[in-house]
User: Fold these one by one.
Assistant:
Number 1:
Amino acid sequence: MTAETSHTTSTTSESHEFQAEVSRLLHLMVHSVYSNKDIFLRELISNAADACEKLRWRALTEPALIAEGAKLAITITAGEDKLTIADNGVGMDRGELIANLGTIAKSGTRAFLDQIADRQENSRLIGQFGVGFYSAFMVADEVTVVSRSAGTNEAWTWRSDGMGSFEIERAELADAPEHGTRVVLTLKDDAKTYADGPTIERIVKEYSAHVPVPIELVAAESEGKELTDGSALWAKPKSEISKDEYKDFYGTVAGQWDEPALTIHYHAEGRHEYSVLLFVPSMKPFDLFDPARKGKVKLYVRRVFISDEVELLPAWARFVRGVIDSEDLPLNLSREMLQHNPVLDAIRKAVTTRILSDLGKLAESDAETYAKVWDAFGAVIKEGLYEEAERRDDLFKVARFKTTKSGDGWRSLADYVKDLKQNQTRIFYVLADSTDRALASPHLEGFKARDVEVLLLSDPVDAFWVRTALGFDGKPFQSVTQGATDLDQIPETETIDKPADGQAAASLIAYLKQQLKDRVGDVRTSNRLAESPVCLVAPDYGPDKQFEKIMARHEGLGQMSKPILEINPGHAQIAAMTRRLETGDTAALEDAAVILLGQAKILDGEAPDDPADFARRLGRVLAAQLG
Ligand code: ADP
């Protein structure tokens, strides 16, 4: 993804078009109705701090990259309708300027743009996405970036008014930082307040007080005032940190504007020594379901930022944000060493255990906040049930479910097991595309008539873990649409109509087997139906029907096994078919059999196998009935 060169205006200045997504984003920024414009400063400071931390890390192996005597820092200069944010970090060369400030590599960008264009109230979304560098155009008519990549002898200027293109030209070395980047904003008429020192001081204190690089302010009122010292918040004792400071740091490290739902801060000693400051957000980030499933926890070694690309947590915990700072690892870790490192493996295990235990405590102590966490991240946490069998029992403890009894709330498996009915030995579930669809399933009728709770599983991942999980508390999981249930053992609380003559149903079953033998594996009476005449279930062994559907969608696999047709002998429609069979007049019964199978499909939210044939037969039966 690189921005295109549209034309060359001179040998030294080139104009480049922004990538289409950037243009859309900039249009939003330039015409922003977003009231809290202050956020642009945190985004620029965050970029500057990242650049300093990257250079600090590179200089571990190449100390000459940092100019002699230089202290890595961010300097903000305010005055005369301009605001400058300068850092002496890694800087960008020409190619990086074009790629980084002309395109958006971030996943979820399109989804973000589509959503934000739809809505008036877009501040929440801007915060959730983290607009980054481009937010500068909310307050600036023109942005100029002068950058020199550390270790090179070239500097480049990037300039844009945010209207579709940007200019790149070579900068004089004398005008450029020795290494690092200077971002100069020419402030819009309605944003001149950002040239005031006190305004900048307030915003930095509010949003960026715990950036791990010192920030200095130069303004008319103050000749070089240190606003923050860049000390690591996670290294301080818990008792000295206020809730607001945690929240501010969360914003800095996560790039989000919501309140963290859970803060986990501790120092571990023993075989390995490290500090942990992690947050569970209360809002979904845009890249939660990105196929790369990457986490963003930052690894530090003795207060030096090393990388945010190391998988410090399992993929199912990728929504957790924050910092892990090791005291034991060497500073000059190569990428390979980071990938397969026994110290990191041990830390990953211990921290994951801690996250699960703290989530469990939150669920106990503050069910309302925990419900938010589960709403946002439950579908991701459940991936762990499939991928980390050894953690399954702990994950089950924090897992919450929609069930036929949960109403607006959530139920735990412990709640479920506590309320088992007499003779109930299994945990029943139904898989569907949504909770509503699950609730509409005819398979649930017999469970309702016995007041038996059923888990409503509607996340795609559910079909996977529930097949491999052995059970909870000794109770196996059982799909309501699969195999024989032991429902007959459980007493009914609402009476289900039953036919007087059991034998007659047997003849109808034999007839249906004969008529439908190419399409169904078996026909039998059902104990899971109360109001509907018919349903389809999967055989005892083999995949659940919903699982087959998901596989068919993703893998293009056809149906693997023929379903079983279950009929409700107490239903008027079945009773009428039974009577007709007894009279020996089976002409209309052929139509009725095919229609019955079609009904079962429709009740599952699917089309009959041959919709035209189904409609024709239905028409014929209706005509005879009404005529
Ligand atoms: P993000 O920071 O979320 O990646 P931005 O749009 O803010 O998105 O920045 C895009 C990229 O530009 C950054 O990832 C970084 O590589 C580069 N960048 C921005 N500002 C600086 C800076 N001050 N120094 C070095 N690189 C920078």
Number 2:
Amino acid sequence: MRTMDAEPMRPVGPGGTIGILGGGQLGRMLAMAAARLGLKCAIYSPEPESPAFQVCDAHVVANYSDTRALEKFARSVDVVTYEFENVPGDAANVLSALKSVQPNPKALSIIQDRFSEKSFARGLGIATTPFALIDSQASLEAALPVVGVPAVLKTSRLGYDGKGQQIVRTADQLAGAWDGLKRVPCILEGFVDFTRELSVVAARGADGQTACYDLVENRHENHILRTTLAPAKASARLKTEAVQIAEKLLDAFDYVGVMAVEMFETRDGRLLVNEIAPRVHNSGHWTIDACAVSQFEQHIRAVCGWPLGDTTRHSDAMMTNLLGEEAGSWPALAAEPATAVHHYGKGEARAGRKMGHVTRLYPLGTRPEE
Ligand code: AMP
């Protein structure tokens, strides 16, 4: 944990209310963590069936373009935060005119756009995948010599879990791939032949203090996170480098809250930042069961101006997402020793939908490979 001198904000204490934009499982787990601290949550979501509604003190069903609903919501809470990065900029501005919005809307707007996100990281001297913006015919032609092939074309905004992405194997596929993404602004990224995907979940408090959870390894299937292994087996150098990257970003954004930094490890042992999430993250779910203070409580603490909690891992952990019908296996999972089952209370178990997760705990230093 690193401490900096700054004027602390007036904390939102027990009995206070946090407004959360977004009502998915992340909002749900934030609300559950807030409850442990005696804090209440009000959830704002356009979806009437939001899983977070089941565990919060108040909820609003309205669109993010509904200025009056947003203003009323802001007035009803002590601080505003969010559980997903695609909060429209206008909504963040309406809210921040009335209440503190954390992480700050400026950081949100930079991270929402893959091109500005990667440019920001690069500007701090942080290594990223090679990239170029494609938003015109001229930039399309200019991108290839910079990035080369194979490459991945991604929409600059609103992509997640591999949606809005096309692999470009040869130069002549690029124009068609951009057509396929409806010629919206895109980023062309060099395809990284990585050895593995790593992430670090980090937090910065209102006083500038930072704290990071252990570096973890993530395994994906069909672009969706399947398993997180905590800790990642990595050298002290790599772990230190990951923490330094996260801290640099947190400070540069003047960030308050939890942030996840997803990275690729290259064959020659370098870390390249792939994506920043301005929120709690799926690769930090293991912290609920393997740390005294989870990423969810950490985020609540940060945005409420509390001291950050201890990020020490008391067990090794393997977190596996339960997708679609897999969540139906809860009776067998619940019977396993040293296993925590998390069910998000979602109705329809569509294929690939994140319905819950399971975290298996192991004594320190003993987690299996998978
Ligand atoms: P993203 O939406 O950027 O997190 O990408 C989703 C997944 O696609 C990543 O977790 C990687 O497995 C893969 N991927 C994304 N970008 C690249 C890249 N530049 N090179 C290789 N694989 C990638």
Number 3:
Amino acid sequence: MTNSATLHLPGQEPLEIPIIRGSENERALDISLLRAKSGYITLDPGFVNTGACSSSITYLDGEKGILRYRGYPIEELAQKSTFVEVAYLLIHGNLPDQYQLTEFSKKLSNHSMIHEDMKHFYDGFSSTAHPMVSLSTMVASLSAYYSEATGRASVKDLHINSARIMAKVRTIAAFSYKKSIGQPFVYPLDSLPYCANFLNMMFSVPAQPYEIDEDHVKAMDLLLILHADHEQNCSTSTVRVVGSSQANVYASVASGILALWGPLHGGANQQVLDMLLQIYENGGDVDGFVMRAKNPNDSFRLMGFGHRVYKNYDPRAKIIKEHCDRILSKLGVQDPLLEIAKKLEERALLDSYFVERNLYPNIDFYSGIIYRAIGLPSNMFTVMFALGRIPGWIAQWKEMHEDSQTRIARPRQIYIGENARTYIPINQR
Ligand code: ACO
């Protein structure tokens, strides 16, 4: 097996570039010494072809539509595991035994309350503020309460800080929702498992008894598993970049939440629902929206379609679609938006524009329909994505800090501005 490639640059001796191979035979050229040896850098806007780290957390093959967490196929985890177990797997590297799982779950219960002072933060937000704003702000603010998380020290204390983030993010998210609808905050209950605890904080009110629907719990658990990690996407790379400066884990995760919010990334799940509603209100005009998405002079894109790495059906979207009908019928919900989504997908997948560009539904295409059936408003969809992604961000942050090759993230650039010029005093310009 060849271990290097030879690079011929104009006017220079041939340069040997080491070839790196991953455990699934992924190949990379190690160009870390390229500039030192040749004076050249590589230019790759959007990091389309750039590996930023080696990782043993998540494997994905976008051509074949494969996704595995720590070696376990996503299909199997979705069918057999729970979100808390998957979180443990991602953070610690292996599935927990019963004792480990119980202890991990206990930690998530014990840390679910937020400092009472933090409740006042909500008074500073208008009730119309997007819940991603309060989520990111308040996760960053946790550093003010847990100062031992500062800098490198936060790696040592990660077991406790990761439990705090995972546990408290639920409470913060549910309180944001309660604030937005003017209802009193409902405190977490240690006796309830992870998802049930969240749903109770979201939907129970002091004035009436609330019964947690097990089907809602299962649907949420499934969606959180599917969102738990996705290797070096925009938000995870943000968490790593911010963490590489030795910013604490709360600051790093808060940055990830903000990166996730963008409509081209996790924010797409809310946009998909808005798009489906628009189509519904336009009398189900699926063809008109497909035409708009294809028009190069129209900035409109089919939200929930396309992916940087999947050039095949996103395996997470496949699982969600398979569960959509079952979950909705179990919940007794008939949602016309599901039919519109299916029609839109069918129409797009027959169209040469989408076929030639390998554009398939991604994770955001069908997830909102399930969240809607559970009773979540669309502005909470990206918050739900963030809740699911927290263990992935923590695992990636931990792995980065434990990797002796980690250096502060600092890309280079090709400067295309003015050459050196002389300063002209203002009265002479
Ligand atoms: N609708 C219409 N055309 C599309 C779409 C879409 N959803 N997605 C990509 N295209 C077209 C582009 O216009 C481009 O066409 P061209 O070659 O004629 O210029 C081609 O497909 C390639 O698209 P790029 O934007 O270059 O692909 P990139 O990898 O940079 O972007 C992205 C990926 C951002 C996901 C893109 O597909 C998109 O905007 N999708 C809609 C938003 C979305 O659903 N985001 C969620 C992604 S999943 C996640 O982050 C959790």
